[in-house]
Amino acid sequence: MSQEVQKLDIKKLLKSVVAYKASDLHLVANSEPQIRRDGRLVALNLPVLDGDMITDMAYSLLSEKQKKDFEEFNELDFAIMIPDVGRFRSNYYKTMGDIACAFRIIPTDIPSLDDLNAKKIFKELVKREKGLILVTGPTGSGKSTTLAAMLNEINETEKKHVITVEDPVEFVHKNKKSLFSQRNVGTDTNGFHTALKYALRQDPDVILIGEMRDKETIGAALTAAETGHLVFGTLHTNSAPQTINRIIDVFGGDEQPQVRAQLSTSLIAVISQALIPRIGGGRIAAQELLVVNPAIANLIREDKVHQLYSQMQLNQQSTSMTTQTQEIIEFLRKKIISKENAIGFSNRPEELIKMIEGL
To answer: CA–CA distance from 340 to each of 135, 284, 329, 343, 351 (Å)?
Structure first.
């Protein structure tokens, strides 16, 4: 191992993420450190790392318990605040026998909905007393940021008890008007389903579920939304109709009618988003928004999810709904994104191409 490599310091590498306005840092053996800027990986002009070097850097951030957990399961998720650098969501894993690391920066300043140029209806949605609001999209699509801004709106305007269950806790909210109880899966609770089971006894008004991963968690979220709580959750789905299908398909055939009925009465909205590179740098969120009204609820209850998309396109000025294709077309008109990226990030590329041809 060269002296130059020995001088590499994990905190300095994480500082480079901030300095380059990147989102992620990757440390993988037999590669130089790489960062992700505007959605694309960029190698730093540094020496190639080996497994021992990554192990030394990675372990310097861990407690003894975290080291034991990683050595037992070969996987570790945690969040860490490094003074004078920033807060990061971290994942350690093994690749070909060596440790590898992925760090994602978490802004310490929580954005407002206005900062995100969010649609006006978002402020109305978070004022609901009960129901389920889902924010969906692929990994790295800004779901956590959108949710943080929505919870921040509640924090600034409502006196509520907000419980978040995350793996790990990302944005740390300071109590303003609301009271926050933020729980890390693994250290504060054994799992999402367990935390939700007991959350109902902790007098919450609002519950955030970091990820609705399984049938038990989804079922508990629906129950919480039905019993007078405002519930926020995430799924890795690319569109609003796909999100509803995913939830229903998690359950067995004999349970699906009940789940459809629950969704039709408790679902408030689905926000599906993708972050698309801007021309000239940075990224912008293209959001598809489904807001449940009597017509949408009826389609869900009657197992006609395939008709949701066309329903979303009707009377949009009064419903506030929008499709991702419409958002992308607007970005193209304003020359915010390229045609190539528009098609590449679209959840309905064939529809988008036809609309582009008609411009």
So the answer is: 25, 15, 12, 5, 15
